[in-house]
Amino acid sequence: MTKTLRGIPAAHRLLADPRVARRAGVLGAPAVKAAVDDALARARTRALGGEEPSFERLVADVSGRLDAAAAAALHPVLNGTGILLHTNLGRAPLAAEAAAAMREAAAGYTNLEVDLQSGARDSRQDRVAALLRDATGAEDGIVVNNCAAAVLLILDAFARGRDVVVSRGELVEIGGGFRVPDVLARSGARLVEVGTTNKTHLRDFERALTADTALVLRTHPSNYRIEGFTADVAARDLVALGRRTGVAVVEDLGSGALVDLAAYGAAHERTVQEAVADGIDLVAFSGDKLLGGPQAGIVVGRAAPIARLRATPLLRALRPDKATLAALAATLRLYLQPGGADRIPLYAMLRATPDALRERARGIADALRPLAESAEPAATTAYVGGGALPQSGVASFGVAVLPADGNPNALAARLRRGDPPLVARADGSVVVVDLRAIPPERDRDVVAVFERALRA
Ligand SMILES: *Cc1c(COP(=O)(O)O)cnc(C)c1O
Predict the structure, then answer these.
(1) Would you call 441 exposed, middle or buried from its count of C-beta atoms within 10 A (0-12, 13-18, 19+)?
(2) What does CATH list as the number for 96-342?
(3) Which terminus, N or C, of the chain has the lesser number of Cβ atoms within 10 Å?
């Protein structure tokens, strides 16, 4: 019996095996050690039952447990999809300043709801509202958990049991099940559709307004475009109609750009400042799309309707936490500094030139060529994502790899299970890793993950 137990390897031998050791990067050394201890305990039981210990079987056992743990955990991944704001990959990466502020707020106490001058209680909304005013030109602002919550709060505060007028061209479903008609129904508001799918005129809105009308809602048709013979009503004309009739005009902008994307080589996207300048009463947008901040829903606009949102009981259920508010404030502060937007990863990614990306792609392809059937730099198209600019891509570069076994889908799956996981595009003939959403300092990790996946 003692003889069999002696064949069981020491824990340090298993921990030193590269197939086990590299998992520590994603899961942490304690989790790896725990999996090794566990596997050894089971091997001892089997050995006492007469089974010959096998090092390979132990490695497979540890790997299996760690794979399951990795699949269950949330951990960093490399985004090789070329979609910069990828909802499934967590949308916007934060600026270093925002991540630091988030960490600091999360790890300790903050003056979340206290005025340190007077010692009196105040609102968690107060400090961020001042930044929202400065960054957007609006009279006031409020923050909730996401843009869907912002729209729900607005409807709850203004439109329960009343009419909301929406153009038929804007009755959209945005990714993840956010459908304008459904959100309206949820909030107890009545949807009044006007116009047609491709054309809506000011007179359509004029005719629909009654004493029961609470709001006119404009929605950014985030993920599609209607082309051909189209007409919609200019925001300023809707605002003028709203002022004449005493009906508030709300715009769900979705993306919430504070800078002109045209300056970053993409197509122009309506900015929050433009919506505010058009006189829209309430403008709703996301924190983690083109703003490049944490997940949040932001409403800016005129002081009186924002005050009404603050007084709505539902706000309590939608309020953001201290870490989100800290990260959002740090992100907004960047917009108030000259050149500060370029410190936000999304804008740094958009700034990268195709030449610089091609150079990086060449370096990675050179390193991988000996291990693959082929590995070459490839011109690609990256997308901003997050519901912005659905049809307007940004010229980019990536690495296109064909593995020796000729199976790109299997390679993509191994990359996805890599350490760190690398999410690539497999188009059926090659695996393509677009470099625009990968920070240049991570190119070595891209090579390492590919090397392991190509050797497997
Ligand atoms: C993305 C989007 C939403 C939802 O935003 P979340 O922050 O994900 O809740 C709502 N409306 C529009 C127009 C959008 O583009």
Answers:
(1) exposed
(2) 3.40.640.10
(3) N
Residue 34: count of CB within 10 angstroms of its CB: 15
Cα-to-centroid distance, 123 and ligand 1 (Å) = 25
Q: Where are the domains of the chain?
A: 2-72, 78-90+347-455, 96-342
- Ligand 1 contact via 284 beta carbon (within 6 Å): no
Cα–Cα distance measured from residue 86 to residue 39, given in angstroms and rounded to the nearest whole number: 37
Q: Which of 372, 376, 346, 345 is nearest to 361 (CA)?
A: 376
Token pair belonging to 183:
């959100």
Phi, psi of 197 (to 5 degrees): -60, -40
Q: Is the beta carbon of 89 within 6 A of some atom in ligand 1?
A: no
Return the CATH fold of 78-90+347-455.
Answer: Aspartate Aminotransferase, domain 1 (3.90.1150)
Ligand 1: which of 86, 170, 171, 222 to mutate, most ligand atoms within 8 Å of CB? 222
Give tens-digit pLDDT for 161-203: 999 999 998 887 776 678 888 888 888 999 999 998 888 999 9
Query: Rounded to whole angstroms, how far apart are CA atoms 235 and 218?
Result: 8
Give the predicted TM-score (pTM) of the model.
0.89
Ligand 1 touching residue 220 (CB < 6 A): yes
Is the CB–ligand 1 distance for residue 384 below 6 Å? no
- State residue 1's pLDDT score: 47
**221 CA from centroid of ligand 1 (Å):** 10
